[in-house]
Amino acid sequence: MRTACAVLLPLAIRTAIILCHYMQIKVKYCRFFGSSPPRRYSESNLNEKNYLKEPKSFLSKILLNDKFILSIIILNAIIIFLQESNVNHIALDILDMLCTFVFIIEMIVKHIYKGFKAYWTSPLNAMDGILVLMSIPSFVSFLFPDSMTNLSFLLVLRIFRVFRFFRLVSLFPNFTTIIQNFKLALRESYAIMIIMMVLIVTFSLIGCFLFKTAAPDYFATPLDAIYSTFRMFTVEGWYEIPDAVAAGMQNSVWVHVVRVYFSVLLLIGGIIGMSLINSIFVDAMVSDNNDDVKEQLTKIEQKLDELLKEKNK
Question: What pLDDT score does 96 carry?
Answer without folding.
Answer: 85
